[in-house]
Design goal:
Layout: H1 2-32, H2 43-48, H3 57-65, H4 69-75, H5 77-100, H6 111-127, H7 133-136
Helix pairs in contact: 1-5, 3-4, 4-5
Protein name: DUF2752 domain-containing protein
Organism: Mediterraneibacter hominis
Transmembrane segments: 12-32, 72-92, 113-137
């Protein structure tokens, strides 16, 4: 039984390392392929003309990988604010699963917090589409004066 646990732990470690390698490959790809030149169109924006909460995320990540925090914030400020928390959650979740094989992290997060985050994302999606001055700054690149 103990040998079986070790093998399954090895498999979990390899799985997390494989996921990390794919993530790193994606970061390397994005670092060298500018999304302003090679755009991935947002389906919601293409069909409706409305910015979704994720619009500008590719350009924001590209700018972040190049160390341009202000530009990244200009493309999607909400993503830049949530990114450290998302990274911390994913790292803790992967480490917990890799070590124990179970999920102890999700039970520590309150449902109220998740509902608050969901409401904040939806409100951000609405507010960034209001065509009046302070809200136009939330459109992708709005602070930079370009889209």
């Amino acid at each position: 039984m103990k040998e079986r646990f070790r093998k399954s732990r090895r498999v979990r470690v390899l799985a997390v390392l494989a996921i990390a390698a794919v993530f790193l490959a994606g970061c390397i790809y994005l670092f060298y392929h500018n999304p302003r030149i090679y755009p991935v169109p947002c389906v919601i924006h293409t069909l409706t003309g409305i910015y979704c909460p994720g619009c500008g995320a590719g350009r924001a990540c590209y700018a972040l990988l190049h160390g341009r925090l202000y530009e990244a914030f200009a493309y999607n400020p909400f993503l830049i604010l949530l990114l450290p928390f998302l990274g911390l959650y994913l790292a803790a979740r992967c480490a917990d699963w890799m070590i124990t094989g179970k999920n102890h992290i999700d039970s520590k997060i309150s449902v109220r917090l998740l509902v608050i985050i969901l409401i904040a994302v939806l409100l951000y999606g609405v507010v960034r589409n209001i065509p009046i001055f302070p809200f136009t700054l939330l459109a992708p690149g709005g602070i930079l004066g370009k889209f």
